[in-house]
Specification:
Length: about 120
C-alpha cells in the first residue's frame, strides 16, 4: 500500500507543471508570495526594500533577502539609484505572464491549498 505522504504529495503535485516549478524554485516562501503579488498588483513600482516592506506590512530584515533572491531568480530587477538599491518587477514578458497566471490561479481555493502545501514543504 502506498505511503500516505506519497499519496498526499501526488495529489498536491496535480497542477500546471510551470506553476509547480515556479512555486518550488521562485515563490518558495510566504514572503516571496506576498512580494510577487505586490509587484504584480503594482507593476510600475520601483522602490527600496524599506518602502516595499512597509507597503507589504513586513519587517525589512525579512523582506530584503527575499527581494534579493527574487532578483537573482529573474522575477525582479535591481538598480542602484543615488546610493540606494531599488527593486522593480522584471520586464521579461514570459516571467510576467507566468506570475500573472500564478496570481489568477490563486483565486481558486484548491490551487491555493496545493501552493501552500508546497511552500510549507520547501520550508522544512
Amino acid at each position: 500500500m502506498p505511503d500516505a505522504d506519497d499519496f498526499a504529495a501526488s495529489l498536491m503535485d496535480d497542477m500546471d507543471p510551470r506553476l509547480l516549478e515556479l512555486i518550488r524554485t521562485r515563490i518558495n516562501s510566504f514572503i516571496k508570495w506576498d512580494l510577487v503579488r505586490f509587484f504584480h498588483d503594482n507593476p510600475h513600482t520601483t522602490d527600496t526594500a524599506d518602502s516595499i516592506a512597509r507597503y507589504t506590512g513586513r519587517d525589512v530584515r525579512t523582506v530584503e533577502p527575499e527581494l534579493q533572491q527574487l532578483a537573482r531568480d529573474g522575477v525582479l530587477m535591481t538598480e542602484d539609484l543615488s546610493g540606494l538599491r531599488v527593486y522593480t518587477f522584471t520586464g521579461e514578458k514570459d516571467v510576467r505572464d507566468l506570475v500573472a497566471t500564478f496570481i489568477r490561479a490563486c483565486d481558486d481555493r484548491q490551487f491555493r491549498v496545493k501552493a501552500i502545501y508546497h511552500v510549507i514543504r520547501s520550508l522544512r
